[in-house]
Specification:
By secondary structure, this protein is α+β, with helices and mostly antiparallel strands. It contains 7 helices and 9 strands, in the order βαββαβαβααββαββα. A hairpin with an 8-residue loop joins strand 6 (188-194) and strand 7 (203-209). Helix 1 (47-63) runs antiparallel to helix 7 (246-253). It is elongated, with a radius of gyration of 19 Å. The termini are far apart.
Amino acid sequence: MQIFTFVLMGVLVFFAGNPERTIAADASVHGTFALFEVEPTWTTLSSDEKTKGVQEATALVESFKDRITFDSYWTYGLTTDSHFLIRLQSSEAKINQELLTQLAGTGLGRHLDLEFTISGITKGLNYAPDFPDLLAQLKAAKYEGDPSTYVIMIPTRKSAEWWNLSKEERVALIREHTVPTIAYLKTVKRKLFHATGLADADFITIFETNNLEDFNNLVLALRMVKEDKYNIRLGSPTVLGTLKSWNEVGALLTK
């Protein structure tokens, strides 16, 4: 399947949470995404048992607040075989793993199936410094409007041919890739994680927006650039959901 990467490679736009509160500004952020489906056994529990299970999970999340930035998204009805996605950001992947391991032992976690998980790290700018005129436009653009409603998480992978291009060739292709994205910076936020060697993907991009039509148009525009020919994976899975606090997720699970 031919695919595309619609990320600003080397252009990191941060949002939703502030992992830098516990991580040095020049350090990599380790991100882990975990997609869960609630087992049918959850529905057989009493209201009190459900409430206790969610409270145990909430207490666990709270106990990691100084080490992990925790973001949650409700995916039921928008992404197959899932109820919610969580994003963990910390100074080391093992901290994210520790939280997920302990979550499995809570009253909620014992009724969850971990359907998919993937990890990556943030890095500095790779290509944008080579086209300073566009970089200035990227830095000047600001997201506008109300807080985002939707989240989309997409892992992507590039071909070996891509990695064997010269740096100059890749810069030229990424410049072409970047141009159509500028028009959407006011309505679509994004953050890029590098995953080569850490997962069966090279990049993980998470997007937030209030406007799925703009997001769709962004994707279509990026299908039309030459850099798209070097992509061999899109999604698998693509995760679509709505932004929810963990308390909101818990309330949905205890209904």
